[in-house]
Amino acid sequence: MSGGRLRRSGRALRALAGGALSVAATFLGLLAVTFFIGRVMPVDPVLAIVGDRAPEHVVERVREELGLNQPLPVQFVRYVRQALRGDFGTSVLTANPVLEDLRRVVPATVELATCGILIGIGLGVPLGVAAAVWQGRWIDQAARLVGLIGYSVPIFWLGLMALLVFYARLGWVGGPGRIDVAYEYTVPTLSGLLLLDAAWAGEWEAFGNALSHLVLPAALLGLFSLASISRMTRSLLIAELSQEYVLAARAKGLSTARIVWRHALRNAAVPLLTVIALSYGGLLEGSVLTETVFAWPGLGLYLTNSLQNADMNAVLGATLVVGTVFVGLNLLSDAAYRWLDPRTRAGA
Asked: Per-domain residue ranges for the chain?
């Protein structure tokens, strides 16, 4: 018994060490990609700082201070050290440390993407289940139509039309921005998540105002994620409903609802979780157009403005954050996969 425990402990330690090495290698590769992107871009970071008309000796002095006159391997080692310390340099656009800017804009994107993915899950999973159970009927056709709209309609056009109808014409929701100016400084910043901070402080008028601004962009992102989640739920559930254990459950007299929700969907949830995690990551890094249309002060708008102003420190810092988010979501989905599916733990 003791020998078996030792073997299991050894396998667990090897798996943990292998996972740590994999994460370290992935993060190092991410740093390498962002570093070389910054070097091959046709933008001189020194000229972005001092301007095109700066004297040559000023350009050379700044280049030396930034270490850009050194060989690329030396620059890369320095870049890795600075990134591990959270030092991404100073933004040319805001004159603030990039890390400080990221702490300000990332919570806005997290709040928007989280609401979007919750809408996508809350509507997409039941819609996919209904489409799979009543395959070929009107609900299945409706689910396909919703998915087609979510995939094919340009999100910037849909956002503009939504603003025109629901904000400008009907006045049902708040307009561009995250909150009205009248409420902007009434909510203390604790987590950076405006709804959570307003609720914690008891500022319910500010909470309602922030929610009215959040509804439209979150609904658009929810439609985008709903398209993929409903389609994958339908495909996975159709595959599960054709398995032998479903036939056996029907022979035992179990109801369709119990078979679907208690058995088939539970097995389909394992790969579906990976789809949801990737969809969430896509909303975090792919909400550039949505944030631009709605003037949402998040990571996407910050990255867009940085690209337009050749602010390479900010661009690389934001890119590194997006890559880190994807790595983290993949790790979380793998951990959840192991927890939900005991078969993946059989060799551990």
From this structure: 2-84, 105-179+212-239+271-345
